[in-house]
Amino acid sequence: MQKGLEAEQLDNQVHVEPFTESMNQRDPLLDVVSLEKKFPVYGAFGKLFGSKGQVHAVTDVSFSLYEGETYGLVGESGSGKSTTGRALLGLSPATSGEVRYRGQDITHLSERELRSIRKEIQFVFQDPYASLNPRKRIGDILREPLDIHQIGSSSERIEQVYQMLKTVGLQPEHAYRYSHEFSGGQRQRLGLARALILNPQILICDEPVSALDVSIQSQILNMLKRLQREFQLTMLFITHDISVVRHISDRIGIMYLGRIVEEAHTDELFANPLHPYTKALLSSVPNLSRRMRERIVLKGEIPSPLEPPSGCVFRTRCPIATEQCAQEIPKLREIRSGHKTACHFV
Predict the structure, then answer these.
(1) What is the average per-residue pLDDT within 269-281?
(2) Is 193 helix (H, G, I), strand (E, B) or coil?
(3) Is the pTM of this model over 0.85?
(4) Which protein family is it in (predicted)?
(5) Domain locations in the chain?
């Protein structure tokens, strides 16, 4: 019991120094190049008469993950950020583009070839209750990845399950319970335990704290930072809450309607936002300091990805849009060192 309490105290105290090593001197651990994902839309008779159109979920997305950093991917619901995360691991195969892990393109690997890659890239789902089998005990759920990859003997696998439960602030006896016997915060810890038990290199976290209370959110975020240090993890942190991603990310990419519209180091993005959408997002974050941003209220709703706007996808809600925005798609270009944006007027 004492070890579990110590882990929880660490979750409330640990803060890791930001990632500052120069990225220009190293090759990326994961490199995403012109990633696209489209979903066909069928009518009432299904596939009988073919598709009626395509949902453009992700369009021309490119970014890199460097070893040891946390990259935050932020956007509204429907922006394509979760689809991007699933496409990286092949859970939702990409329509086009490349995902390179340690220089190897993994987008066209067979299911058997992907198995070894998935051992090194793990996914933490938004809803841990839906991702945990309600008919299995927690110990069996955590042991299953070890059985699939044939890691260690039977006794070693059991001991590894116990040790992982302690690592995430739970107790060995929790291995004999079912998922419905845990609170939301505990279930998210179990989701992390299942992802970490294979000792991966990259952790993709899809809205891991969005369904939790604020006090529990801080525990999980601080625990993620502690685990990142202990397991030497590289993380992709997907969220709609830009105030949350500020406290955990080294770099941030802002997504809107399937495209990355701005990318920068965290401090640079908050100090000098360039894209109108980023400025609107930051203006909505409560700020108790003396320096208050002017509140920018965007009109209308995010357009349908079934029929995205021509030119700049943000132009229908942008306060500075012109005719050029309707005709030309702005390219994501580097404005200053490490700071990229996709806007004609920056």
Answers:
(1) 93
(2) helix
(3) yes
(4) Belongs to the ABC transporter superfamily.
(5) 2-75+83-255
